[in-house]
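Researcher: I'd like a structural prediction for the single chain below. Treat it as a standalone chain; there are no partners to consider.
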Amino acid sequence: MSSRDVIGIAQTGTGKTAAFALPILHYLAAHARPATRKSCRVLVLSPTRELSGQILESFRTYGRHLQIRTALAIGGVSMSGQVRALLNGVDVLVATPGRLIDLVQSNGLRFNQVECLVLDEADRMLDMGFIRDIRKIVAKLPVHRQTLMFSATMPRAISELAAQMLRDPIKVAVAPTAATADRIEQRLIRVERAAKPAVLIDLLRRENVDRALIFTRTKHGADKVVRGLVGAGIAAHAIHGNKSQNQRQSVLAAFRNGATRILVATDIAARGIDVDGISHVINFDLPNVPETYVHRIGRTARAGAQGVDSGERPTRSHTADRVAQQKKYHRPIAFRSAAEAKAAPSRRRRAR
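Model: Treating it as a single chain, here is the predicted structure.
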């Protein structure tokens, strides 16, 4: 609200969206002015279509009693509707980098009225290869603006980007970098690769699952897990980059309203997708780096709830060892073999 640049670092589920949306809405309400054609006053960039849609919904929910004009610019859908939405100008534009550049190149959007830039999930944008696009976008923005950068982790590349883009920023760290959520019970199951599907099915049948989010490393792997679960009589759906935007939105909507209780995903869903009532996160495939593990399990135990994370680990896994041993991952991980997992009594604790 004082127009200072900000770097915000916080683990998943701590309310980063509200932290920037509410002050921005306050500023827009206090400094209302007519919109300028093909322009926006606030530009919010996020790495994925789903997260962008969620951020826009947060702005609309928080600002429902204000006369705030908003728009969404994401890939996977027709650009013509987005061009029409921007024609008379908006206050807040939430976008993914690729579609934003398309709009600028087609003369559907101008940057000359941008007063505030928000980069959400900056480390995820780095992971997805968007940094070049970010630099290209920032180079076209007004020099005199406020820039807010939010990230769950702060790798060196993001620190260097922040040093180039932000002016004397205030740094706000809500929790230690890459710390796991304190209210998550973590379990790691040692299992041979070929036995993982059977162990997963047994786990889902034995646990008292409200909603479960299962992560795989590949799109093909996600579809394969879904086929195995459906074949065992467990309803499940997949979400990944090969699904159309309509399919992804439909599956996420069903997961949010409880029509779908088991969602299998690649890391496209690992950041920022805030779905209430996820009681279990299962790492069918462990990620390559420990930081991604933190973001995955952050889908449960959000906003003060409790949750359970189970990881299915091959008998030898360097990633699992790094996750368990790094000091910054301060919550203990219970190791079990597949046999021990099957012998354990069914858990009745629910994520509330």
